[in-house]
Amino acid sequence: MAEIKQLPKRSEVPVALTWDLSTIFKDESALKKAIAQLSPQVDALLESSGNLANNGATLLTAIQSELKIENQLERIYVYAELKNDQDTSNNQNQALKDQVNDLVAKVSAKLAWLEPEILAIPKATLANFQNNNADFKPYKHYFDVLNLKRKHVLSTKEEAILAGASSIFETSENVFGILDNSDLKFPFVKNTAGETVQLSQGMYSTLLQSTHQSVRKQAFEQLYAVYEQFKNTFATTLAGEVKVHNFNAQIRGYESARQAAMSESAIPETVYTNLVTEVNQHLDLLHRYVGLRKKILNLKELHMYDLYTPITGKSPLNYTYLEAQEEAKAALQIMGDDYVSHVDEAFKNRWIDVVENQGKRSGAYSSGVYGTNPFMLLNWQDDLDNLFTLVHEMGHSMHSYYTTHNQPYQYGDYPIFVAEIASTTNENILTQYLLDKYDDPQIKLFVLNHYLDDFKGTVYRQTQFAEFEQFIHEADARGEALTAEMMSDYYGKLNHRYYGDDVVNDSQIKSEWTRIPHFYYNFYVYQYATGFAAASALAKGITTHQPHAKDNYLTYLKSGSSDFPLDVMKRAGVDMSQKQYLEDAFDVFEQRLNEFENLL
Ligand SMILES: [Zn+2]
């Protein structure tokens, strides 16, 4: 008789395998007290509105109390989020989350006056405040960041109108989300075991990994049949979103939406164009990898639905959670004793919510707030993929740990441009560690394939998305209509260029743009690709023991947002304003592809 695996209830999970949220709030009454204290502070701050330009002390006090409010609000918000994620079926958790979301919206609206008022202070007056008051020193970069917006801020009245309309600007993304997550109905298909299952976003990715081509094909065709039915609606929501990006950029005097998005972190647009150029110059490597896939799978035709099925069989390496802890520490030992001692703290002091339970949020992430330890959510399974996930999330958590212990609150977080570098450096270090540790060709093949697939999905695929994103923004700016047909036409050609002649460019794939939520994020995806490439270069420096590589890397982890991302990364050892780090990353990819080919 088949064994039916039932997930435990939240209350049945051993405490040692749950995270300890009491480091955020000791108990419910501490949380209630923090919530109650917030409003009076926001109201008190409001009293200084209109007076910030009077003198430096008034300005600084206002900024400091705003940061204090922000920190407390984050603490409340993160607590409610984590509590809800551990069991989304718990009504009390849901109610708390709703209450806190309301609170966040109210407080943000009440604080909206602050930034425009600071930016209305003439630059010379601000410089004067800074020069005559030593207390401003820890805020120098804070003002540098703010000043980037100075040229692009509108009149107080215009800003107020825009702030009032902000929820209207979110309509396209909201409609996409509702359609994609709840209104689309997917048909029933057969899974690998021959059972009938309902197709969904999650089920689709499972079915695409099936070892039966007929299962993959059916899932692919059925999923795209649903999306294609609504392609004109999806074209309208995406066009609406692109228009918002272009409109906001234009009224604020930016040359393009891309320039506006990237200038927030002072990232020059050449970072983007270098990425696209370099990836295109190395498409031959992707074509080679895809060709290998076709050969190993022994297929006459390799289709778009054959790109996710494993080609090296079942994982030869499996780990219990305890074994994974030891292996993670052994792999990360190269970062030094201090780093590993904090990894150990994460395991011992319940920073991690380890196992699945009923109602728990799926996937994995690292979270936290300034002033508490980081937290990690996992849904642990005993395999190599989960060990990779563990070191990935640990990379984020160590980044948070070192940043919050070395920076004041105003620099105590980090932008997305540098965030994925800490996590994927750890993944790259684990890859090298396993390749060095094992001689068994089966294991080597599996680890190499894990890396090659990761590189394909992160560097190549995200750059393909970035090219599409750029195309639709430029077309709209030129006044061209973004119809389903023109977007599909471009996407189909783009896909063929990326995967080459060895893959059948199935007609369905040209509609892939209909189902990618990231196209609503405004020039976001390129950072996955640049981050992975930078991580590849950094991990290489660390694992080959280049002078200062490890220490420079730790400096990056400690820097938070105390400087512009490119400057932080330069000190870590990668100059992301140049092309070399991308070429280094492709060198590693090529070497490992060669190794993979030789082992076969
Ligand atoms: Zn991550």
From TrEMBL:
GO biological process, one term: peptide metabolic process
Top-level class of the enzyme under EC nomenclature: hydrolase
Domain of life: Bacteria
Similarity field: Belongs to the peptidase M3B family.
Keywords for the protein's UniProt record, in alphabetical order: Hydrolase, Metal-binding, Metalloprotease, Protease, Zinc
Cofactor note: Binds 1 zinc ion.
Cofactor(s) needed for function: Zn(2+)
Molecular function GO labels: metal ion binding; metalloendopeptidase activity
Oligopeptidase F N-terminal domain mapped to chain residues: 117-186
Record NCBIfam families: pepF
The enzyme's E.C. designation: 3.4.24.-
CDD domains hit by this protein: M3B_PepF
Alphabetical list of PANTHER family matching this protein: PROTEASE M3 THIMET OLIGOPEPTIDASE-RELATED (PTHR11804), SACCHAROLYSIN (PTHR11804:SF84)
Protein name per Swiss-Prot or TrEMBL: Oligopeptidase F
Domain (Peptidase M3A/M3B catalytic) ranges: 207-587
Function (record text): Has oligopeptidase activity and degrades a variety of small bioactive peptides.
